[in-house]
């Protein structure tokens, strides 16, 4: 099977095997060495000197950690949404009794910094902004993140960024862009099985935690930081995933971040070119296309609800469908993590064959 | 290394390798088949017809799930403690703004059902009781759990049980004992790497969840149940751990629960006999000794703070030390999961050699 979803992504054989190593004591010197190494590696990938905490949970757990540690009950926060994962922030904020002010942009577009500025001017009580860097549901990158960060800080607010499906594949310059809290997840560009999430914390964010009355325990980042200082985690960590991450980081740092970004950009362009050559349209606006996942509009006359099933069953390729209001209207082609030209070529062939099988006249292509 | 801690436990080679299988889509038919199979298997191990939800988190995450789904902010709850993990329930309950009434029993003793009855009579407003089945920190089993459950339900309260280090190794009859919420964790008798926790939910507990205003998102069990009905999890699951669990359950059910219980009981007795033959004393009271972990008092004249380091560095065996007030006063010998006679024999030899190395006159033994 060619796994072409935007995560979980294929795990390289050496990483998968690293996870099968003998179990160890999570309160002993071997684990202390591993978590110190993976934390230093994660900081390099985050391009930050801030703390980076690795929690045993999926990315949504990392998003919850970002909310419960920094947002207070009843607090009004600005949630900038450009797709389904932005809406997940809304959902978490509401679940915890805070009050989101939503600034929604059309699916496929990026957040407009000027409108964020307006929203913060109109709501001077807002001290926290939550935003998605790369919207997995629409294949769109919020390319103006550095400008947004500048505006958010001008308004003295905290900048919380879901970079789950970008960080490690697309440049996220945590320190240079002055991002307070950034979240990523092992099953994306990190080439590791799902189950670990990363959360970086700036000094501004630590200060916020000190006085934040929101209840938290498992996802309490201060507990995670204090355990990390002893080379531990507060609760038993997913050790086999740490073994994998350790190996994956070794491979990533050997390839080099710039080379990784370049490979993702090149393969994304190859995907987009191939998709357009089939006469298909992308959901993301021009210049906003994500380098980790491409969202493709299902062409007229094709039954979108059958696309992923036919691609999987007849052509051995697993694509993701649309989520929420996009169900049946798009398919998503993942190209992040351990991915190479042949995966993209095979994926494009599967797209074409699937469309033909569903009655699309590919001969009409541009 | 002979890993003789009470979890994470050694993962059998076939289980470890299962975790290295190719990554799959967590929203596809392969995963639906796996989670349906592992859920049915987990229900067999829990001996229940209740829902059993498998969450991507460590056991402490399962404990938090039990609290946030069933305990309301400000609610007074009874927390019965016989060691450090009972105190973790206290900590979680307090973190979420509920009010614990602690009924503490001396470390090494079991909870006395009559005193629980008294506590519930004295606090007729209490509707929730939290208790540890097998206290990992003291090597003690709360053997009167069925009687406690009868009393708790007579007082119309909900019975929440941390069975993390017992269930799958020691009989826990969820339905027969009428336990409302029971928690276990993959890294114990389940022979799987850490990172999955199991929570069973009775009808009484579901009803409580319906009206419980406590904020929750990642650990919301209703979301987990609703996703499970589609063969999914609400958030990306730790797939490689599900692959392992699937294989481990196959092995466990092939061995048979009765045979597993018998093996654990036999190896625990072998451990206790060997420990006593060295002239050492157990922390647990007679008849309360856990069949998954033995807590051994450090004999007089031996520097307890050095025990685990010497055992590991000189004799290739990893024991656990004491936690909290027991630090330096005991060591703990785990005998659960994928464990066999030779592991116990080797562990006992390591105990003896370590004590001799620390100046203990084993010749004096009884």
Characterization of this structure:
2 copies of one chain form a homodimer. The first copy, chain A, has 366 residues and is α/β, with parallel strands linked by helices. Chain A is 41% helix and 16% strand.
Number of strands of chain A: 14
Name the overall outline of chain A: globular
Quickly count the helices of chain A: 12
Unreliable segments of 5+ consecutive residues of chain A = none
Reading off the top of the CATH hierarchy, the class of the largest domain in chain A is best stated as Alpha Beta
Largest interface: A-B, 57 and 57 residues
Query: Strands of the largest sheet of chain A, in order across it?
Result: 2-10-9-8-5-3-4
> What is the ordering of alpha helices and beta strands of chain A?
EHHEHEHEHEEEHEEEHHHHEHEEEH
N-to-C CA distance of chain A: 29 Å
- The CATH topology label of the largest domain in chain A is Aspartate Aminotransferase, domain 2
Strand content of chain A: 15-25%
Q: Tell me the helix content of chain A.
A: 40-55%
Rg of chain A, alpha carbons: 20 Å
Q: Please name the fourth-level CATH homologous superfamily of the largest domain in chain A.
A: Type I PLP-dependent aspartate aminotransferase-like (Major domain)
CATH architecture of the largest domain in chain A: 3-Layer(aba) Sandwich
Structural class of the secondary structure composition of chain A?
alpha/beta
Please identify the oligomeric state. homodimer
Count of all domains of chain A: 2
Taking the sheet with the most strands of chain A, its summary is:
7 strands, mixed
């Amino acid at each position: 099977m060619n796994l072409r979803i935007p995560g979980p992504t294929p795990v390289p054989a050496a990483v998968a095997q690293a996870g099968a190593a003998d179990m160890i004591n999570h309160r002993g010197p071997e684990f202390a060495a591993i978590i110190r190494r993976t934390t230093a590696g994660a900081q390099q990938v985050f391009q930050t000197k801030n703390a980076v905490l690795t929690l045993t949970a999926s990315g949504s757990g990392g998003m919850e950690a970002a909310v419960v540690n920094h947002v207070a009950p009843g607090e009004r926060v600005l949630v900038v949404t450009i797709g389904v994962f932005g809406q997940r922030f809304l959902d978490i904020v509401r679940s915890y009794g805070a009050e989101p002010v939503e600034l929604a942009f059309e699916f496929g577009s990026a957040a407009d910094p000027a409108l964020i500025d307006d929203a913060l001017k109109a709501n001077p009580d807002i001290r926290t902004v939550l935003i998605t860097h790369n919207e997995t549901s629409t294949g769109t990158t919020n390319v103006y993140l550095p400008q947004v960060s500048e505006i958010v800080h001008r308004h003295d607010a905290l900048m919380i960024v879901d970079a789950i499906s970008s960080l490690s594949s697309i440049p996220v310059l945590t320190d240079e862009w002055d991002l307070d809290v950034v979240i990523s997840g092992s099953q994306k560009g990190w080439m590791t099985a799902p189950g670990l999430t990363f959360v970086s914390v700036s000094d501004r964010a630590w200060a916020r935690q000190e006085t934040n009355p929101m209840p938290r325990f498992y996802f309490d980042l201060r507990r995670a930081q204090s355990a990390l200082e002893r080379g531990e985690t507060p609760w038993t960590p997913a050790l086999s995933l740490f073994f994998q991450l350790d190996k994956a980081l070794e491979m990533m740092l050997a390839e080099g971040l710039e080379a990784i970004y370049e490979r993702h950009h090149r393969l994304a362009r190859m995907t987009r070119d191939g998709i357009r050559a089939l006469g298909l349209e992308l959901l993301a606006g021009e210049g906003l296309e994500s380098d980790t996942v491409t969202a493709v509009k299902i062409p007229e006359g094709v039954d979108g609800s059958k696309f992923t099933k036919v691609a999987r069953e007849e052509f051995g390729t697993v694509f993701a469908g649309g989520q929420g209001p996009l169900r049946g209207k798009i398919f998503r082609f993942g190209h992040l993590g351990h991915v190479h030209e042949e995966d993209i070529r095979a994926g494009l062939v599967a797209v074409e064959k699937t469309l033909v099988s569903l009655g699309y006249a590919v001969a009409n292509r541009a």
